[in-house]
Amino acid sequence: MRLSPDEIIFWQYGFVKLNATIVFTWALMLVLVISAFWITRKLSAGITPDSAVQESKPRSRWHNLLEIIVTSLEKQIQDVGLTHPRPYLGFLGTLFLFVAAASISTIIPGYEPPTGSLSTTVALALCVFIAVPLFGILNQGLGSYLVSYAQPSVIMLPFNIISEVSRTLALAVRLFGNMMSGAMIIAILLAITPFIFPVVMTLLGLLTGMVQAYIFFILAAVYIAAATRSREVPTQAAMPKKAVK
Amino acid sequence: MAIDWFTVGAQILNFLILVWLLKRFLYQPILEAIDAREKRIADALKSADTIQRTAQQAHDEFAQKNAEFDMEKQTLLQQAKAAADTERASLIAAAREQADALSVTLQQTLAREQHAIHIALQNLASDEVFAIARNVLTDLAGVSLEQCITETFIAKLDTIDGDNKRDFINAMSGDKQHIRVYSAFELEPTQKTALSVAINTLFSADVQLQFETAAGVVSGITLKNNGQQISWSIDEYLATLKNSVHKLLRAREDKSVAGQVAKTAIAP
């Protein structure tokens, strides 16, 4: 029994290999990027969705969907504590969209979610692991960020470092475990009780995948917010327009 | 379930590429569209606010102008009304004065005409009365009347006073032959003689009288010489009476005119 799509290797040259994880990741990337490009190629700044009078063309429903997704992500990031969500939207939003798209695509027969690979989840967790201090340093400066590891006292320095590493590991393992278990359960159920029950479990798996995507996104946002919080004091003047409104 | 580090690296690279691509094709266009829309909404709100403020300002200005116009209209109306009232009052006063003047003039004219008619009637009546009396006396004249007249004339000659008598004598002294005696009828010889005697006695001279008849002498005798005359006739009485009557009427007329003028002066 395969536990990871890494084991499906389409092509290999030395240590360079083209496995299912990479292929399905590329497929997801293509779908996401092409969809985004197709929807956003002719955007309208119309005030209302059917503002044919005020604008030259109305907004499409896909445009509205994308706006809902983007503004929701922005709002979530802001709610976590990052009062200026725009700089983090690219990284955090892509995390959510990638994991969510990988989970939703499990309804496609023959599809293997890349997030079911520990390599992918480790890669994403490493990205978060690098992004958190990077955003922290960009926000606070190197010295200030490093000092934050010794807060509230120097004794806490090793614990903070351990916490940093362990949460990255936890991120990776949590996402991998959930996604892998979902795929495993469906595969086992298909072998035991085909037809109806696996459909229900697939639906449950979709829900679980969405929840995991949200958890991964929120945890990453929380870590980044924690790393940048010392500088991110919300003031009336510094708050973005949305927050002010 | 081992971690394939090549896959890990590839996935990190894939993820970073995906981040860049989604930033380029998803977040940036969507956020720009949202920002553009928000800016457009803000501009529209600002423009609407400006328009509303302008409209409010125009409304306020219009309301103020309207109020001023109403006030000015009221003032002008009041002034026009006051001027019209004044003009009306002055016109009415002028018309009343004119009417009063016309009325007074009319009353005076009427009074004058009435008075003139009255006077004319009175004169006509008196003239008629005297004409009737003259006619009656003329009709009644006869011998006996002529006799009486002659006697009466002789009696008058006796009563003539000194001045008249002296004037007549002076007038007569130059031409004593041209003393004429006029009567309505031819006198009887006895009457002529009586008259001659009486006159000669009066003037103490021998006077030759020329007796003539005159239609204008009514029941009387007239003695004339060189512009001097002594006469007695009923016509003379009538003339005296007529003069008296006319004097009396004139006095009454003057009194009535004075009374009317006083009434006119008192009347508003």
Question: How would you describe what is shown here?
Answer:
The complex is a heterodimer of chains A (245) and B (268). With 245 residues, chain A is mainly α. Chain A has one domain. Chain A is built from 8 helices and 2 strands. Chain A has helices spanning 20-40, 61-80, 86-104, 118-140, 142-149, 157-192, 196-228, 241-244, and strands at 9-13, 16-19. In chain A, strands 1-2 form a two-stranded antiparallel ribbon. In chain A, a hairpin with a 2-residue loop joins strand 1 and strand 2 (16-19). Residues 231-245 of chain A have low confidence and may be disordered. Chain B is an alpha+beta fold. Chain B folds into 2 domains: 11-101; 128-250, no CATH class. Helix content of chain B is 80%, strand content 8%. Chain B contains 5 helices and 4 strands; from the N terminus they run H-H-H-E-H-E-E-E-H. Chain B has helices at 5-140, 143-159, 162-174, 189-203, 234-266, and strands at 179-183, 209-213, 220-225, 228-233. In chain B, helix 1 packs antiparallel against helix 5 (234-266). Chain B is rod-shaped. Chain B starts with a helix and ends with a helix. In chain B, 17% of the residues are buried. At the A-B interface, strand 2, helix 1, helix 2, helix 3 and helix 4 of A face helix 1 of B. Chain A: The chain crosses the membrane at residues 20-39, 88-111, 118-138, 175-197, 203-226. Chain A: Keywords: ATP synthesis, Cell membrane, CF(0), Hydrogen ion transport, Ion transport, Membrane, Transmembrane, Transmembrane helix, Transport. Chain A: It is found in: Cell membrane; Membrane.
